[in-house]
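Box S2. Input/output pair 1.
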Amino acid sequence: MNASLKNYINQYSDSSPLILFRIGFGVLMCYSLIRFWLKGWIETLYVNPSFHFSYYGFEWVKPIDEYTYLIFILCFISSFFVAIGYRYKLSIILFFLSFTYIEMMDKTTYLNHYYFISILSFIMIFLPANVGYSLDSFFNKKYYLKIPRWNIDIIKILIAIVYLYSGVAKMNSDWLFQAMPLKIWLTSKYDLPIIGESLMQKNWVHYFMSWGGMIYDLTIPFLLIEKRTRILGFALVVFFHVFTAVLFPIGMFPYIMIFSSLIFFNQRFHKKTLKYLEQLLISIKPNLDLEKTKIINNSKTKFEKIKLSVVTVFLIVQLLFPLRYFLYPGELFWHEQGYRFSWRVMLMDKVGYTTFKIKEKRSGDTFMVNNENFLTPFQEKQMSFQPDFILEFAHYLGDKFSDEFNEVEVYAESFVALNGRPSQRFIDPEVNLYAEVESFKNKTWVLPLNDEIKGF
């Protein structure tokens, strides 16, 4: 092993950043799940629909009718236990499994920050985030002041990956030279107070925000890492994410990224924050005994090398997985093969219209399907411009109508517009989609885009 690498692995760091991260992460997840429940999204997205779009290879992950609420309850309880540090290892494992299951129940709900939470919670399984300010620490009378440095750095690296890949993805001709799709979205914000009519309609604002967004993503990890620019970096994080939260309905993502950036601050900041939380608890419950047995530099376990190996392999996968789109010919924004899970955040505006024709092979009779009989409006919107959605729904229709007829074929009439371009035919109308099989192979039945988007 390289001497410098070995030296790094043996370095220790104050545990307070990881402890505070655990508390904040748990609290944010609790709030997110309560918010999701109160808005009625469990019912509208998972319980009511009769059909759900699945991820390839995970077709068995489905909502379980009314019992779906139990999955959310389990996720909430485990996130609360993570926040208070009670049976942390079991709690974070249950949170990872339940949250990821929720994320995969229906592909129409895919969001980048759902994926970020899943991989972050997986990483946290291998981190000793309960070494202090936790019920585990309280009951064991042990508070580890030091933990291996990589336990904190791994979170920083994961955050940097999100920003850097997002920034590189913005280096394309649509984003930089056409200000697309921001030009479409910002001009629709005319009803915003003060800035709606005065700024959001200006062409230079669209370009300024496009270039500014790319530069922000590419530089913010370095600004946060460097001590001299950290305050500036954090100020930019807060401004950028609050501003995007005002402009776009992107849920909890801005607040998750604002909180996550605090991990870059030094131990003094985290110690002061934890001390404030401690005093707050004491003021609420004056008789609370917070005395701990402090053990320094003793948090490394015999499984440390195994944990580091697993986390390293996982990190390498996260670095390589977003690059899989290079394996497919054609325009990524059009065919979307390799688009998800690659930190391509808000890069395209696609509008589609897709209907399906069922053909009975023996008689040759055909009829059109009313999508509304099977899909919710949100599902139909997502299906209309995403090839794997279209294929999956075509198979669902084929299976359904095969019960009425002996043999059927399914054809799609599909037209899609991308980033303000004129609508064009999306799916080859001569291809029987019911005979096509989902796989990692190139979807040749997706017609090519009549244009070229240059960039990464």
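Box S3. Input/output pair 2.
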Amino acid sequence: MLIKKEIITEEQIKLAKYAKVLSHPVRVYIIDLLRKQSCCYSGDLAQELPIAKSTLSQHLKELKKAGLIQGEISPPKIKYCLNKKKWVEAVKVLNNFCQS
């Protein structure tokens, strides 16, 4: 099914992107954790979450792709932090949708 591009707004595209990335409980958990503390190392997340490291890596990749987190490589670890600017945008988009 094709959707005419001119009927879809940028706001709707952003909403769909953020809703999709937040549709998995593990990703919601990661975002919640990073909202409560400044940053977290991937190894710490791997110890805390009862999932395979490869699965965790995929979730982190999806959050990075959506722009909600950013990673800084400090060998041998990767430090992840919430991208506050993108998080504020995501909250605004989600709130606008829920209030309309």
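Caption for Box S3: Residues 39 and 81 are 4 Å apart (CA to CA). The chain has a mean pLDDT of 92.
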